[in-house]
Amino acid sequence: MRPDTPAENVDHNAEAARLERTADRYPEDAEALLVQAAAHLELAGDRPAASSLYDRLLAAQDGLENPFLVRALKAANLWEYGHEAEARAIIEGVRAASPRDPAPWVIVAEALESHDELEQAQETFTEGARVLLTDATEPPYSTHPLLFGRHRVRRMLGLAHDEWDTLADTLHTSPVSLDELHDPKRVWSLGSDNPAELEAEISRLRAELGTFREALSRPFPVAVLHWPASELSELLAAYPSLESEYPSHEEHLATIEESLRELSSSGTPNLGIVSGTVPSYEAFAASEGMSPAEVSLLPQYATTLAARGRAVEWPPQRGTACWCGSGRVYGECHGE
Question: What is the Cα–Cα distance from 234 to 227, expressed in whole angstroms?
Fold first, then answer.
């Protein structure tokens, strides 16, 4: 789908079929591509076909990078076409597994919210926040929807603000406050005859639109390219001129961490790391009509991998393994 194509002009069935064909060509990216294909099928109204794609992914669960994300998406989709009991069972399974990725928490909580299960939605948002944000000094960008969703549901339930609600207010950058955006009485202002109330609601809607546009402007992280040790050795053996870019694997890892910390300190949000492989890089170079030895091709390759959903968030969540693949937790490795 071209980024300049209006959503209403998209043939979602055709786009899903294209993504499935692409997944067959690039099996290493099949997970991200098939998740996108399922989303298009949902938008086309073919929810059973979307469920089939989720089942196809879950059948190969051992190879999935984000199995709980796929399960959460499947549950939300099932509930929308009448399979409530199965959806609830999957949601409970996702919650019990306590995934370290915020996306599954947000998806299952919003599924509960959309079906008026506000108490359960609030509990789910809170569980996710507790798992991911307890003792966190700075909530990663990917956790912001978790906090904003929790704030919204608690506002609808009429609950008093707590520390996480206050944190959500702090993270929210729109000129209209979260309290105002999440006011459950807003819907009545749309039917008001009072010009002042209508004008205020238009301002709120513009603020929400600005927030959505900001999120859409970052569909994938600002990603830095990482080569595992074996892949870097193979890359340099095939293209020795790249040794000036990668003097050693240890220096390569140190440069990645240093670059990301500099980007973070400069205020760049939504940072990530993508890991390259030589066959994938050579295929990308061929598609661009360039030599893999071209240094200028490396950042383009990183951006392409990120766009395919291959990026992992930096810094890693508290207590999770370091991005470098050492097996040690990040705080005891490159996060020291």
Answer: 10
